[in-house]
Amino acid sequence: MQRVSRASVTVATEVVGAIGQGMLALVGITGSDTPAIAEQMANKCVNLRIFDDEGGVMNRSIADLLADGQDAGILAVSQFTLYADTRKGRRPSYVDAAPPGVALPLFEHFVTTLETLGIPVQTGRFGAEMAVELVNDGPVTIWLDSDILRRGV
User: Fold this and answer.
1) Catalytic residue among 2, 10, 51, 80, which?
2) Which of 37, 62, 95, 127 has a CA between 20 and 30 Å from the CA of residue 31?
3) Superfamily, domain 2-146
4) Nearest-5° Cα angle at 97, 95 to 99
5) Quick check: is 110 catalytic?
6) 6-26 residue pLDDT tens
7) Which long-range contacts (CB under 8 A, 24 or more apart) does 114-120 make?
8) pLDDT (tens digit per residue) in 26-50
9) Would residue 80 show up in a list of annotated catalytic residues for this protein?
10) Is there a catalytic annotation at residue 21?
């Protein structure tokens, strides 16, 4: 999750998703993820307080920004390479990434949950070669791990 002042994703020459202020969510799905985990992750993103308040303290969520009438959104991009295993050799292994038939429905469920929570969402194109452009605001980058949510840590 990255706090951005703007972000976009392009496939070939077509911009398929773009936001101004908000969050870029690079979403990796693993084989043990479930719809419940996708919902937990979406809720965590919506309520994560990574935006500055009047005093310059990260004390506001994207939901807070929207409640105050500010333009904000989430650009969600599926990215299986987040599950690269680089422990052996020089070529990453992606065996921990969920196969497309599992990952796509869970990614779509994540996006639908964000929308249900009132967040404007743009997406990349699942499975496509994409060019992602962003201006990381801060920079602020937060790693959200579904394994940690499952363990309740």
Assistant:
1) 80
2) 62
3) D-tyrosyl-tRNA(Tyr) deacylase (3.50.80.10)
4) 95
5) no
6) 999 999 999 999 999 999 999
7) 114/42, 114/45, 114/46, 114/74, 114/76, 117/42, 117/43, 117/46, 117/63, 118/63, 118/66, 119/46, 119/62, 119/63, 119/66, 119/73, 119/74, 120/19, 120/66, 120/72, 120/73, 120/74
8) 999 999 999 999 999 999 999 999 9
9) yes
10) no
